[in-house]
Specification:
single chain, rod-shaped, about 100 residues
């Protein structure tokens, strides 16, 4: 009688009942959950692929923009260097 007074038997029976119920319902519940989970998983994978492709395009566009900016900056630096050299050459040309 001491076991019934401390609640151990009640917890044991509850756990046993849950285990038996799960074993009986598992063949019904698992296919139902799988039928729902598979399309959700497929949709998540497709979304990830689309997100990856969009990100890849954004990175490529950003790279092109940076390349254009670098090319413009180099052209401006070359123009400034060319102007500096052309103004300095006549003075040096008379001494040579």
């Amino acid at each position: 009688m001491a076991l019934t007074n401390n609640g151990f038997t009640g917890n044991l029976l509850t756990g046993l009942a849950i285990g038996v119920g799960a074993a009986i319902l598992a063949p019904v519940v698992i296919p139902a959950v799988a039928a729902v989970a598979k399309p959700l998983a497929k949709a998540a994978i497709k979304g990830g692929i689309l997100l990856y492709e969009r990100g890849k395009e954004a990175v490529a566009e950003t790279g092109e923009l940076i390349e254009d900016l670098v090319a413009e900056a180099k052209a401006e630096v070359a123009e400034i260097h060319k102007e500096t050299v052309s103004t300095a050459d006549p003075a040096q040309g008379t001494n040579a």
